[in-house]
Amino acid sequence: MGKKPATYADLEALPEHVVGEIVAGELYASPRPAYPQLTAASFLMMLLGNPFVLGQGGPGGWYIVVEPELHFEEDVLVPDLAGWRRERLPQAPRVAALSLPPDWVCEVLSPSTRLLGRKVKLPVFAREGVRHVWFIDPVVRTLEVFRLESGQYVHLTTHSGAGPVHVEPFEAVALKLGVLWDELG
Predict the structure, then answer these.
(1) In this predicted structure, what is the pLDDT of residue 75?
(2) pTM here?
(3) What's the rounded Cα separation, in Å, for the pair 98 and 36?
(4) How far apart are CA 176 and CA 48, in angstroms?
(5) d(CA 93, CA 101)
(6) CA angle (83, 77, 43) in 5-degree steps
(7) Distance CA 33, CA 94 (A)
């Protein structure tokens, strides 16, 4: 007899110091991010927030949040960042979890989440039609960019260094990648 699929109650029973996700009935528990990952996610939110969420120095038109809980069928995912174009999500939802797939997700990789992001979550994002996926690795200092085409992700580019770079779907504004690696000097 097979293992019983994980439920939302299993997520709720996890300790507060872990991030829980369910994919294909399996429970994944990852430690809270360490500072290289927290710094990269926080600084990326700052870089994207003004021009793309608030429309200050950029085109606006996005709703971007940190660690949203996404419910897709029986799967529960928590990407590091996710963004929806305002025409699809015009205002902040009043719920704890969303079932509307984002237009963009960003996973900030760590040794404990590298395979989870690439092998487990990426196929779910493709199935749900998430158009753009970024993988940031703050240790090796890379940003990988993928676009969904015909149900499969195509690797567009890998950026490294300090930037500035123009990156789809936020190519309207140059991103200074060095900020993500905590190179603020």
Answers:
(1) 96
(2) 0.93
(3) 27
(4) 11
(5) 13
(6) 45
(7) 26
